[in-house]
Design brief:
The complex is a heterodimer. By secondary structure, chain A is an all-alpha fold. Chain A contains 13 helices and no strands. Chain B starts with a helix and ends with a strand. The N terminus of chain B is likely disordered. Classes of the chains: A mainly alpha, B alpha/beta. The interface between A and B is medium-sized, with 34 and 34 residues.
Chain lengths: 441, 192
């Protein structure tokens, strides 16, 4: 492609949105995550109880909507236009969407907590509006794409599953008041959870990983064919799993195997990318991603086990399902997101604060903004906390869950310190630069 | 830095088929450049490599010792009419011999070379920002802008189209033009 950029640079055809568009999503999401982890030590009794109850749903939606979905939305606004060399369709819409989403999530979480179904339904309706605005914005942005590569396909599919998840969630909220779904709550919740966890979040993570992991590890995805196979296997497996979970069919195992095959292909692709990387040392962002991928192996095995139904008792199956959900939310999704945040936020902050000064004054490198000691502490605390909590939840071990959630709370504080150390670079008074030098000196 | 002891003469010892152009080549026709220590230290060797290449006599071959296979360099060298022989001699030990292919061989190894003008490496400051994690490519290019003298230009090589660089160049009054090369990287010319 020759001369796609005009010879004179009087206008840029694509650009990233302003700092505040993604940043407000990131800060809110991180506040939700830290709140959830600090809240966890007080939820030990609920964590040892059956998973389908109000407090657990409040906690779950604080993580899934407040932390995970808010982060993915902010990252989409930041990365999709740059990665796909286009421009976000509307920054103003992204701004409006933020406030509606924030209010919707706050209403949902608070009303799940107090067990007020009308409030949950109103909150879910606001989340539906916010996500509709998000889908319009991303849809119009993606519409400008000249061709659909493997990343664009994952993003588009993830958006379809997000829409399906939120519509289903609203139906479930309305069902609490009007009881029209036939009372099959657990089937519905399992289908809803997998549609969200695999269709929306995992699909988006896979797509983003094909772009970001080679970029961050200085490598490349040399063979895209397995990635296309992964894409189709994941889609077929998910749609099949969703329907068979709803129908409580034994065929769920078959579709779980297809999803496991897709996961295997994804992990194979990532192994190839990391094996051929030009930077031997993995930084803390990539260590989180790698660790999350290893957790994904255990998670997939656990999911296959649950799909077969070969579990000693219904009670243990419920404990196993609870542990599976906790491992998915924390060990796979949250650890992946933290890893990507450790790369994206320093980039975002550096670009806002320092990019105009490069070549004119000495400025720190983007990699210096995060530091080493705090993410290292957060990494080990988080992993220890997840391991203890998940094992404690599965085997109904109260003391282990108590210690595990306390360690998770400490990990939350470490994460808060790590991101605040990056954000302080937005305040020049807190991070003054050395005296100005002559240009080019 | 040259390192003849580790790079010299090993083409024969590996059993790799040796092109005719490299058979019985006397030592004075090999120009050896070992950039392994430089790369390990995180430094960028591209400028040194191109200086060595530009100083080659017509009858000389260029031997590069590196810690990884420099795949993007093959395209650059092919555009200049060089074929290559690659040997991996161990972990982080690659030895690549670039030699002038005849016209037919050059055309086969670089089919796109004839269809586009060669990059004006000689009259532009080459800033190789490939193999860097964002935002380092942008930072590296911006840091080099003050080096552009009157009438001069920078040729920046990047792995991706430098979308975030464009507004910064506009703000500083530079003009630019980006091309995607047939080898998968991007070349951006920047001038006042």
């Amino acid at each position: 492609m020759v001369g796609s950029k005009p010879a004179s640079g009087n206008s840029a055809p694509a650009r990233q949105p302003s700092l505040w568009v993604p940043l407000r999503y990131f800060v809110t999401a991180q506040a939700a995550f830290v709140t959830a982890l600090l809240w966890a030590p007080w939820q030990v009794d609920n964590l040892l109880d059956f998973y389908y109850q109000g407090n657990g749903l409040a906690f779950t939606h604080l993580l899934t909507l407040g932390w995970i979905t808010m982060t993915v939305m902010g990252a989409s606004f930041q990365l999709v236009p740059v990665a796909l060399e286009t421009t976000l369709w509307s920054e103003r819409l992204a701004g409006w969407q933020y406030w509606i989403m924030l209010l919707g999530v706050a209403l949902m979480v608070s009303h799940f907590w107090i067990g007020h179904h009308h409030g949950v339904a109103i909150g879910a309706g606001l989340v539906l509006i916010a996500i509709t605005l998000f889908l319009i914005n991303m849809g119009r942005t993606l519409w400008q794409l000249p061709r659909w590569d493997i990343i664009g396909r994952h993003v588009a599919a993830a958006l379809v599953y997000l829409a399906s998840t939120v519509v289903m969630g609203n139906l479930m909220a309305l069902d609490k008041m009007f009881d029209f779904l036939g009372g099959q709550v657990l089937r519905t919740i399992h289908a809803h959870a997998h549609l969200a966890g695999i269709g929306w979040v995992t699909m988006m993570i896979f797509g983003a990983s094909y772009k970001l992991i080679p970029m961050f590890s200085l490598s490349e995805l040399r063979n895209e064919r397995p990635a296309y196979w992964e894409f189709w296997l994941l889609n077929v497996g998910l749609v099949g799993l969703y329907l068979t979970l709803l129908m409580e069919s034994v065929w769920a195992t078959l579709f779980a195997i297809l999803i496991a095959a897709a996961v295997g292909l994804f992990l194979w692709n990532m192994r190839e990318v990391l094996r051929t990387r030009r930077r031997p040392r993995l930084d803390w962002g990539l260590r989180h991603s790698l660790s999350a991928m290893i957790t994904l192996i255990f998670l997939t095995i656990l999911g296959l086990w649950l799909a077969t139904g070969w579990v000693l008792s219904d009670e243990f199956a419920a404990r196993l399902a609870f542990g599976y959900g906790a491992l998915a939310l924390l060990g796979w999704i949250s650890v992946t997101i933290i890893g990507m945040m450790y790369k994206i936020i320093p980039f975002l902050v550096w670009h806002h604060r320092y990019s105009d000064l490069v070549g004119l004054r000495p400025v720190p490198a983007a990699t210096q903004l995060l530091g080493e000691s705090t993410p290292r502490l957060e990494f080990w605390l988080l992993h220890a906390g997840i391991a203890m909590t998940v094992v404690g939840v599965i085997f109904t071990c109260g003391p282990l869950v108590q210690v595990g959630t306390l360690v998770l709370a400490a990990a939350g504080l470490a994460f808060a310190v790590a991101v605040c150390r990056i954000y302080r670079h937005l305040v020049p008074r807190l991070t003054p630069l050395p005296e100005a030098q002559t240009a080019g000196a | 830095m040259t390192n003849e002891s580790s790079c010299h003469g090993d083409a024969q010892s590996t059993g790799t088929p040796i092109p005719e152009a490299l058979r019985n080549l006397p030592d004075d026709r090999r120009v050896i450049l070992d950039v392994r220590d430089q790369v390990r230290a995180g430094e960028e060797p591209f400028q040194r490599i191109m200086q060595s290449v530009m100083s080659l006599r017509d009858d000389q071959v260029f031997v590069l010792c590196n810690i990884f296979e420099p795949i993007p360099l093959y395209g650059v060298m092919a555009q200049r009419g060089f074929a290559h022989l690659t040997e991996r001699r161990g972990p982080q030990d690659w030895c690549i011999t670039f030699y002038r292919a005849d016209a037919q061989a050059a055309a086969a190894s670089a089919p796109a070379a004839a269809s586009r003008p060669a990059a004006p490496v000689g009259d532009a400051i080459v800033v190789d920002a490939r193999g860097l994690e964002p935002p380092q490519p942008m930072a590296k290019i911006l840091e080099n802008l003050p080096r552009i003298a009157a009438g001069g230009q920078i040729l920046a090589l990047t792995d991706r189209r430098p979308m975030l660089l464009y507004p910064k160049l506009e703000e500083r009054g530079f003009t630019f033009s980006t091309e995607e090369t047939t080898h998968g990287w991007f070349e951006t010319r920047i001038w006042k």
